[in-house]
Write a structure and sequence with these properties.
Length: 86
Amino acid sequence: MNVASLNHLWSYLQGLSLTASNQRWLGERLIEASTEHDIASEEEKKLKKLNALFGAWNGKDGERIENAIREARKADYERELVSMND
């Protein structure tokens, strides 16, 4: 909403005959809604970052890596252990 719309809304709310408890209730609901919106925004940011990582293995490189992993799993040989003390 722009500033003019917010001012109009505020004028409307002031024109209502709200009791103190009604005003408190309305304020609490507005705060809850803004908090939920902030939490949703943080979750959306995290998901965007996570989704950006999925593209790292797209295309030919991803296929090549996937095939290398599959071939290594199929290989039926033992690897020679090399001592690291030498």
